[in-house]
Task: inverse folding
């Protein structure tokens, strides 16, 4: 006999509060997410509104080329008797004053706020290239060794823990480490060792002296490399582990050596992930300030790294001498100190008097920096997509 | 008739296991195994899960070396008359001559051609015509050439499960091994693909000595000439397949074949 149909709802919820807790949890999570999104948007929007007009303009060529192609300079602001302000650089200041004559009332100078930010852009680019080159080589080598060769056990776990801890070291400590290790004691070849050399090994034709590389792109790049190493090692190891074990087994079963297996059946499939993580490492390296303060960056420099001052050559100098000077200038991209974007932003924000004339350089630098980092992140996503399509399993 | 007396007698066993004990660390997985694998015959290893049949198979090409702490503690394994644990045995050469096909078909995410050519390439073969010839020969042996000859450069992952497993067989035989080890090659395949691979195995036995691990007793009957039954790490019975299945000597074998224990 069928039970009599009733009007009661057989699926009515009970009133034990489960539904209320569900709703409360959902809203708490939702509000948290919204707060993050709103703060991010507020920061981005603020920088965009203030920074974009510095870099972009409304008429052809739409980009403020001066800001992107000139070195930072001191801004001169001259006020006339009627209260008009004229902004000019150091060369223009005298001409303006002469023209104004008796109309001249006062002159203000604001450091670093004139010109452009080519120096910091170039410096950051060089630092990033050196640091990523070093970190990729060391990091991928380390990840391959740890995940493919090293014996599993306590020691390996300790090494992994040490690498994770390295990621937690404050970046200023990396800066001081870089100062001690690369600026003051790294080995270099010299004819005569400097007095501060820790020790030197005469090699006959030259001397290997542990006297450091001085503050330069190389020192800064190596220091930054150590900052991003933990990220690259950890991410690379994960990418290697994500390659199916079956590939390794099959390759070994076909008689491949371990290195052949890694080279042909593991690395090609781990590369997309490794590259992605390394590009995120680039963004990190580009943004660090403390590690380069002692090792590579200057608050101000009026030359690009390859425009080194060299004694003028006599008229009858040999081609070899010219060539030597060119090489020396070129090597300046490694051996000269540079300006860097994050440090430049710090200088503009904290080391000069704040007024409306400084804002242009401040927001402009931050905007350019953000665009560069966003471009790197976007390219990492694109690269991963393309490589994934090629090597998927 | 040849004057060589060995030509008339049966060829010596290609793989010979003698009184072998095998351990994973402290736990012993195989006990006193002795086995002779006949030249150009299919030998099946059967037994319940965990009986050590895969471990025994992996002893033949020393794939167990990949497992830390796993080792042969007694006895020896001879392949083509040579103890494969001798110090002068090069693992890459051993594995070139003892090919292996795994349970899970696992082609590399490369082209069909590159998959088959992989073994030859890592052994230093660069000559395009040699590679071309080997790819065609191996795919033909694996009954894939007609299906795939027009798309050799397509990604191997685009193939069906059964085709992928046959591609793995082609890849394993491209280096012309003497012995082909197969570790439950059909357990992940549908019945039709399984049938194709079983047919293939009869063909392969003309060229290679095949050792196959299977959990499927009907499959052992269909494909093998000899069958070894393992239980709890011990070789219980080893006999011609027909004999073992119709007239087992051991009680344990009989019980297993009847399905009275699992």
Result:
């Amino acid at each position: 006999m069928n039970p009599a149909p009733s009007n009661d709802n057989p699926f009515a919820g009970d009133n034990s509060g489960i539904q209320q807790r569900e709703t409360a949890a959902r809203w708490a999570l939702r509000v948290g997410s919204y707060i993050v999104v709103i703060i991010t948007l507020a920061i981005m929007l603020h920088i965009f509104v203030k920074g974009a007009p510095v870099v972009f303009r409304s008429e052809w060529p739409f980009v403020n080329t001066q800001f992107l192609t000139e070195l930072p300079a001191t801004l001169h602001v001259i006020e006339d008797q009627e209260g008009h302000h004229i902004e000019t650089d150091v060369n223009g200041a005298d001409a303006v004053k002469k023209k104004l004559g008796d109309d001249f009332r006062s002159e203000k100078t604001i450091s670093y706020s004139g010109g452009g930010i080519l120096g910091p852009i170039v410096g950051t680019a060089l630092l990033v290239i050196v640091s990523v080159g070093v970190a990729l080589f060391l990091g991928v080598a380390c990840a391959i060794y740890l995940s493919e060769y090293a014996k599993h056990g306590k020691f390996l776990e300790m090494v992994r823990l040490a690498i994770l801890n390295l990621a937690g070291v404050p970046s200023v400590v990396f800066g001081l480490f870089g100062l001690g290790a690369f600026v003051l004691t790294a080995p270099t070849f010299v004819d005569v060792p400097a007095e501060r050399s820790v020790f030197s090994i005469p090699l006959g034709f030259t001397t290997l002296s542990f006297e450091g590389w001085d503050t330069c792109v190389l020192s800064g790049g190596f220091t930054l490399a150590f900052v991003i190493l933990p990220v690259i090692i950890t991410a690379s190891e994960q990418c290697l582990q994500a390659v199916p074990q079956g590939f390794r087994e099959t390759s070994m079963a076909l008689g491949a050596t371990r290195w052949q297996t890694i080279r042909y059946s593991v690395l090609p499939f781990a590369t997309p992930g490794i590259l992605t993580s390394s590009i995120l490492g680039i963004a990190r390296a580009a943004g660090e300030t403390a590690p380069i303060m002692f090792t590579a960056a200057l608050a101000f420099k009026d030359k690009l790294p390859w425009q080194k001052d060299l004694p003028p050559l006599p008229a009858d100098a040999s081609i070899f001498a010219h060539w030597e000077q060119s090489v020396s200038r070129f090597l300046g991209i490694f051996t000269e100190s540079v300006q860097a974007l994050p440090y430049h932003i710090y200088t503009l924000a904290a080391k000069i008097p704040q007024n409306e004339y400084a804002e242009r350089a401040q927001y402009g630098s931050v905007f350019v920096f953000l665009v560069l980092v966003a471009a790197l992140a976007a390219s990492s996503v694109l690269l991963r997509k393309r490589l994934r399509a090629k090597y998927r399993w | 008739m040849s004057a060589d007396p060995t030509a008339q007698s049966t060829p010596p066993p290609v793989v010979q296991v003698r009184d072998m004990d095998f351990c994973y660390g402290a736990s012993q997985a195989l006990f006193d195994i002795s086995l002779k694998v006949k030249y150009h015959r299919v030998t099946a290893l059967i037994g319940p899960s965990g009986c050590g049949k895969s471990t025994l198979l992996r002893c033949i090409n020393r794939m167990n070396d990949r497992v830390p702490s796993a080792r042969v503690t007694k006895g020896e394994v001879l392949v083509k008359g040579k103890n494969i644990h001798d110090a002068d045995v090069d693992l890459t050469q051993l594995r070139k001559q003892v090919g292996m096909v795994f349970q899970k078909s696992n082609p590399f995410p490369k082209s069909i051609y590159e998959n088959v050519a992989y073994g030859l390439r890592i052994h230093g073969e660069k000559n395009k015509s040699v590679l071309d010839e080997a790819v065609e020969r191996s795919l033909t042996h694996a009954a894939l050439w007609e299906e795939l000859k027009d798309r050799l450069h397509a990604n191997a992952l685009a193939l069906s499960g059964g085709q992928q497993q046959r591609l793995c067989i082609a890849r394993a035989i491209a280096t012309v091994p003497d012995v082909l080890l197969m570790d439950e090659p059909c357990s992940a395949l549908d019945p039709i693909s399984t049938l194709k691979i079983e047919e293939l195995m009869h063909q392969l036995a003309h060229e290679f000595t095949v050792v196959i691990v299977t959990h499927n007793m009907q499959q052992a009957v269909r494909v093998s000439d000899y069958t070894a039954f393992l239980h709890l790490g011990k070789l219980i019975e080893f006999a011609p397949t027909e004999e073992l299945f119709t007239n087992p000597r051991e009680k344990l074998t009989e019980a297993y074949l009847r399905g009275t224990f699992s």
In short: Strands of chain A lie at 72-80, 85-88, 104-115, 187-190, 200-202, 207-210. Chain A has a mean pLDDT of 84.
